[in-house]
Amino acid sequence: MSRTGTIALTALAPLAWGSTYAVTTQWLPADRPLFAGLTRALPAGLLLMAGTRARPRGAWWGKAAVLGALNIGAFFPLLFLAAYRLPGGVAAVCGAVGPLFTVALSAGLLRERPTRRSVGAALAGALGVAMVVLRPGAGADAAGLLAGLGGAASMAAGTVLTKRWGRPEGVGPLAFTGWQLTAGGLLIAPVALLAEGVPPAVDGRNVLGYAYLALANTAAAYALWFRGIGRLPAASVSLLALLSTISAAAVGWLALGQSLDPLQLAGVAVALGGTLLGQRTGSRRPAPPAAGRPGRPVRPAVPSSPTRH
Q1: Which residues pair with 182 in a beta bridge?
Q2: How buried is 170 (Cβ within 10 angstroms: 0-12 exposed, 13-18 middle, 19+ buried)?
Q3: pTM
């Protein structure tokens, strides 16, 4: 597949994530962020592992656990906690700094030296998100801000390590995604039980919401996302996550009756411009894969709130 095709396919993941805020607020029980993260991750992970019948081997048991903790186990609870405690706009801006974290981590772990274009694209994307979602007088609390920034940092670290380690030979994106979702879900489960108690009562609407988040929004979307990480520079794929803001604005307009003023429309254009600029960003002299490193070598270039993943 061409690089353009890979970018387009990877972009489907954040476009799907843009619906998370509407589903969370309209279809799920309130104030249960850990349970929401658990039901989104564990069923999807077990389903993918059962379908692919691929299990980690050797060092990949530990690597899958680390990636599952960063991309899922820590990220999902922090994401939903920020969703419940912050106005959507503030939480979105916290998430939009993720590409900046990715650029910084890529310099240290992948030896991809940041360029002015990559930093400029990340800054433009964050500015565009702020223009779309941030409003005067939006309140915030310290726990919500820490959760939002922590979630962005966790996802950035998971993206960079996924790029660094690649995938084991012969393991496809679905199996690789299943490992991480299962590991992350098992990490969330005891914390959810201790912090939130027994699961809440759910009705048919809640079940549909959880099913959508687990299957389309998580299993399918994350498989595309991890596939893209293996084929694109980490900073470039992280910038694609900003498309979730544009998607969320469209969902809010079409499904929730929300309007977009001229400043928000300009913000959409700025965020989209930063995302597109980031796809033209290559790293400077990336480090070659270490000899004998287990797993598939990193491929050269051929990451409510409206940014809910």
Answers
A1: none
A2: exposed
A3: 0.83
